[in-house]
Design goal:
- The chain is α/β, with parallel strands linked by helices.
- The protein is built from 16 helices and 25 strands.
- The strands form six sheets. Strands 5, 6, 7, 8, 9, 10 and 20 form a seven-stranded mixed β-sheet that branches.
- Strand 21 and strand 22 form a beta hairpin.
- Helix 3 (97-108) runs parallel beside helix 11 and helix 5 runs antiparallel to helix 6.
- The longest helix has 27 residues, at 163-189.
- The chain starts with 5 loop residues before the first strand and ends in a 14-residue tail after the last helix.
Length: 549
Amino acid sequence: MSNDRARLPVAGMTCPHCETTVRGALAAAGARDVHADFRHGEATFRLGEDVDPVALQAAVRDAGYRPGQVELPAPPPIAPRRPDGAAYDLAIVGSGSAAFAAAIAAREQDARVVMVERGAVGGTCVNIGCVPSKTLLRGAEVYHVAGHHPFRGVETRADGVDFGQTVAQKDELVAQLRRDKYANLIDEYGWEFVPGEARFLDRATFAVGGRTIRAGSIIVATGARPAVPPIPGLAEAGYLTSTEALDLTHAPRSLVVIGAGYIALELGQLFRRLGSAVTLLQRGARLMPDDEPEVGEAIGAMLNREGIRVLTGTHVQRVERVDAIRRLSVVVNGEPQLLAAEQILVAAGRSPNVEALNLPAAGIETDARGAIVVDDQLRTTNPAVFAAGDVTLCPQYVYVAAYQGGLAAENALAGAEKPCDLTALPGVIFTDPQVATVGFTEERARAAGYQVKTSLLPLSAVPRAQVNYEELGIFKLVADAATDWVLGAHIVAGNAGDVIYAATLAVKHRLSVADLVASFAPYLTTAEGLKLGALAFDRDVAKLSCCAA
């Protein structure tokens, strides 16, 4: 797309006549020099004066097609402006995914950039989050399958785990990725790196050690850390967070996990498969309360199958240590219980890393959770300072942090004024089976005013699951009954994290249930569940032949 042209995704065009119809609709609504392409499913055009993008969408919709969001042409670059005495166009505090995405985007605009980091370069994901946890989860899965697969006549044994070797292998991979994907890029793109703790002195200046740094714009991307609830006796008894748990060299005999979110579920299953007796403590009355009830039920069945105990409606009153055992006084649905374990894992959310920054000196406000307050363009209450990634307590995904970092740099340096758009945001929990979701749940779609229809497909109806002899899971699709648009997809299945990308495209680009039905789905893939789920709105898929015919 030319830099001076807007773009509108248009679903439903199938021929040159459709192109002519869309061109006419957009021109009548005020667009100029319109070009429509049914093969690429888009229209491009120049915007006339005072043309409302919403009116353009309405014109296409009235013509019988399904428009996406109008993508406006990129604004002309604005030369970064530095205040008096500023040596840099952009200063970035932090060195994780948000920080690196911001630095790369800024250098591509030829801005002068400095990055400050108080700890290991690379942030949470590569050092203590995604990479190490998923590596160890895969190792535990391989060990588990060796002793628990369903195929008759295939003899395998799970003879034991030297977890220290697995952790050492994980550390080698972490070091490699930290070097290749982070440290080496600093010289490749050419920004300055300063080790040390940043502390704001005023609205455009901060100190690092004995040095003062002043910049035209600043991005705070300091991330977050595991939150630790104020439970009496917990600190004295000792506990693990996910950081320490991923560095253990042996599995504890027993483990109580305070929390039942994605970190608790992943690490709970990891240590259970390595031989630990695991208990998860869920504060609320239902497991996974923000997800579809059917998702929580499927994961509850998985936990039960693996021998993981789940207690809901819990409140930990006190912890104490007696010799090598931690004892937890817990109220479970109003009844007191005493739990004992070799280790306690705290997985009760995240806290933003802001304490050392002296944010009041910069005029930067935080909310009740300590997260930096930003507007939809990621600007803080100081117009010269932006924040991106986990420090804002946005959805805690590395790809969200990277997206926000690049967006913050573009808004800070080019005056792009682009809003942060997290619609059609997929999420994955890397349990086995995986949980993958995108878009509205049924409840949230109804609350948003949609006329909701749903389909619920047991994983046992998906041929891939049948040949794998692994049928625990579901596909649930949420759609708008008025337009047939796919509003959400919720999957519990092996490889659900890979399947969810197709569902993300469907939600983002307003594909309909009929579009899914009309698309080819490769037979004997988990992704075929999306087509079967679409068929299940109107048909009993148990009565279809192999390829959903």
